[in-house]
Amino acid sequence: MSETLTFRSKSAANQAKLISQLERQFDTITQLLYTTNIPSPVLDRQVLPYIADDIIFKDPWQEGGNKQLYRIGMKGFHNIFHFTFDTFQLNVKLNEDGMTGRCIVDGIMNLQQFSWIYTYPLRSIFVYEFRLLNCQNIDEPQFEIFRHEEMWSFADMIDGIPGVGWMYKNLFRRSFGYFFVAVSALSCVIHDRFIQTNKKKQ
């Protein structure tokens, strides 16, 4: 009995250590991907080895790809835009098979294209799905990312635009809130009358 408890305790400790190390690695990968002053050779050396040949990239504008297309898009993103990234939360969870898992990153992409005027903050969530290639070495686990998804809302995009964001937040959203409540109240009245009419017919 004591040997079983010891084994389970050791296994739990090993998995916790594995997840902790994976979280550190994903934090590094995220900072490299979304801090766009990183040179291309560094991306090839420190990010590309973790990208699977069959990777799929998805964001609100696009979906698809493979490793070669991902590499081109990654470098193009760094060439065209000037971003930094602030991480709020990062979590790794292994699936029941013990060989695949998911990492979710919550934070803000800061567009600094015109930083002398304004830094545009975009609340973002990244989801990486990965498969472990070797989990025997807990200190340096080998894995590959086969799906990378960016999620950000158009509401946040509008809200972050100077001037337009203020009108959207303080005028449009409040007005639409009252409009929706009014429509909801009207639907309740119609619904109740419809039920009463049906009861009278019966």
Would you spell out the secondary-structure blueprint of this structure?
Blueprint: H1 2-34, H2 40-46, E1 51-59, E2 62-64, H3 67-80, E3 83-94, E4 100-114, E5 118-134, E6 142-151, H4 154-159, H5 164-201
Parallel strand pairs: 1-6
Antiparallel strand pairs: 1-2, 3-4, 4-5, 5-6
Give a description of the structure.
The protein is extended, with a radius of gyration of 24 Å. About 10% of the residues are buried. It has a six-stranded mixed sheet with strand order 2-1-6-5-4-3. The chain has helices at about 1-35, 40-45, 65-80, 155-160, 165-200, and strands at about 50-60, 60-65, 85-95, 100-115, 120-135, 140-150. About 50% of the residues lie in helices and about 35% in strands. A hairpin with a 7-residue loop joins strand 5 and strand 6. By secondary structure, the chain is of the alpha+beta class. It contains five helices and six strands.
Compose a concise summary of this entry.
The chain is α+β, with helices and mostly antiparallel strands and 202 residues long. Helix content is 49%, strand content 33%.
